[in-house]
Amino acid sequence: MTLLEFSRGPMLHFALFVFVFAVLWRLISTFMLGWRKRKSEWRTTSGSSAVKGAIAVGNRSWPHPEFLERTAFGEAVGYGYHIGLFAIILLGAPHVIFWKNLFGISATWWPTIPSGIIHVISVVTIFLLLIATIRRYMHPPLRRISNFDDWFTLVILFGLMISGVMAVFGLGGRYEIILAVHIISFNVLLIWFPFSKLMHAFYILPARFFIGYTHAKKGAST
Amino acid sequence: MSIDNRKERPTIGQIMDENGVGRRRFLKYCAGITALMAMPPGMTAAFAQQLRAARRPTIIYMPFQECTGCLESLTRSFAPSLESLMFETISLDYNHTLQAAAGDAAEEARHEAMEEAWGEYILICDGSIPTKMDGIYGTSAGHSFTDQLHEAAEGAAAIVAVGVCASFGGVGAAYPNPTGAVGVSEIIKDKPIINVPGCPPIPEVMTGTLVSFLASGVPDLDNNLRPKAFFGNTIHDRCYRRRFYDRGLFAESFDDEGARNGWCLYKLGCRGPTTYNACATIKWNGGTSWPVEAGHGCLGCSEPEFWDQGGFYEPVTSKLFNDTGQIAAGAAAGVAVGAAAAVAANRRKKKLSGTADKETSS
Ligand code: SF4
């Protein structure tokens, strides 16, 4: 069995199994925890709390005006590489082909971005990820709250991004080996995902919603 | 087998002179080969000199678990043609498909030829070698292919495995590989082996490899024992459709506008990116065309285990498993474990808050 075969075959199969199993385990066990019992009366109706929750999702995804000057750079870099990653993963032609094959769908409506633009986005995204990593290391509070989880995730992401760029540009040796390394990095990411802070991808929006929702309900109405 | 019967063999130069092959023709022949191998034109003269001085070798061509496609291909070589190769360069002393002799006579001829050139002949093999049940799946003249290979390899100076089957097991070794088929290099470990894979290999690559071996010995080989001169680049590296790949222009089906415009066949399963071969440069049928030019993606036939790399019409990044049941079971198990964990946590929470309530009231 070649390395590429292993990465596309048993390893991908195993990684998907772990990903699906552990993500659902974590999500279900969290969402089924239910609400804390409140002894006081709710301040608002559930409907208007839900609206407030939705607003909180938007508000909390945007830098707070008061701290804008201090956080704008970090936020811009963060948004930059997140958008870059999403564009590459969801709209890069080879990835779209991969997803369609994986999910067994033809989805003719699924758009792709021309490779030239994806190449530029990839290089910019790696650059932004590098800035974010350096910043995490140099910024004392950020460094203090970073642990193995963060650094390991970054290592996987760099492996994934760099091998992807190398495969596309035909750099650094045999294509099938680089492609295998790229797919193996993806598999490692899938396995690591549910047990790491990467779960924020699933938690972040519901968490913001619930915070907005409960804040709307709590306290005395005036 | 003894080496006493070994004969001093004439050099290729002597054969050429005897047959009245002029210097100009010979140089043209060598120029064709050096061009095939992408050697600089300045090296043609040195190559010709080496080739002239080489002794005309005996070739023993042993077919094993094969379809004769490789030999069919070899007989269609244009530069050098098999005829010119046989009359001017090599002595094909045994090939049971091409020779007139059959049965015991053929076997005798093979043993005689091997004895005469013991330690010096080149053994060409095509077809995989079945190893299961002591090799009983493939026999000839009462001997298993495995035994025949061992016997023939013992006296060979080098072995050239032509075709993907002789190189890596190929079609015979495809899952579930009922005969335990393997390539020559899995069995013979103590002889120089050159793999010339393909299904079939490009004829000029076979003849070019042979002639270059005669002139300068075992060529530079890659990890899969393939001559780098022919297998050093991927199909994708040299493909004329590459500019469409780079621009993200892909044919979506074999009859759409993209296909008509000659766009890249990646989405239709082309394995050019992971296949090392010379189809894109040497082409087939005397340089007439090649699969991608004819509108079909590369099948990757010069790569190990090419039959087991997923569907031929699925891209090279596609998954290599069909089972989704286990993943669905994983999802169900995740939901169950998550629910159980939540129930347990809620129970604990209730118990703790009950104790807290009691403590507050007491
Ligand atoms: S047709 Fe195949 S070999 Fe040619 S550029 Fe496309 S993927 Fe590469």
Would you kindly provide a written description of the structure presented here, covering whatever features stand out?
The complex is a heterodimer of chains A (222) and B (362). Chain A has helices at residues 3-8, 10-31, 46-59, 68-91, 93-103, 115-138, 140-144, 148-169, 175-192, 200-217. By secondary structure, chain A is mainly alpha-helical. Chain B has two domains: 3-231, 3-Layer(aba) Sandwich (Rossmann fold), CATH 3.40.50.700; 235-352, Cytochrome-c3 Hydrogenase, Chain A, domain 2 (Irregular). Chain B contains 17 helices and nine strands. In chain B, the strands form three sheets. In chain B, strands 2-1-3-7-9 form a five-stranded parallel β-sheet, with helices on both faces. A two-stranded antiparallel sheet of chain B has the order 4-8. Chain B is elongated and about 115 Å long. In chain B, 42% of the residues are buried. The chains are: A mainly alpha (222), B alpha/beta (362). The interface between A and B is large, with 45 and 43 residues. The site of iron/sulfur cluster has 15 residues of chain B, from helix 13 and helix 14.
Blueprint (SSEs and pairs):
The complex is a heterodimer of chains A (222) and B (362).
Chain A: H1 3-8, H2 10-31, H3 46-59, H4 68-91, H5 93-103, H6 115-138, H7 140-144, H8 148-169, H9 175-192, H10 200-217
Helix pairs in contact in A: 2-9, 3-10, 4-5, 4-6, 6-8, 8-9
Chain B: H1 12-18, H2 23-36, H3 44-53, E1 58-63, H4 69-74, H5 82-89, E2 91-95, H6 103-116, E3 121-126, E4 129-130, H7 132-135, E5 139-140, E6 143-144, H8 145-154, E7 156-162, H9 163-168, E8 181-182, H10 184-187, E9 193-196, H11 203-216, H12 228-231, H13 235-238, H14 242-246, H15 257-260, H16 279-282, H17 325-361
Parallel strand pairs in B: 1-2, 1-3, 3-7, 7-9
Antiparallel strand pairs in B: 4-8, 5-6
The structure holds iron/sulfur cluster (SF4).
Iron/sulfur cluster binds next to α13 and α14 of chain B.
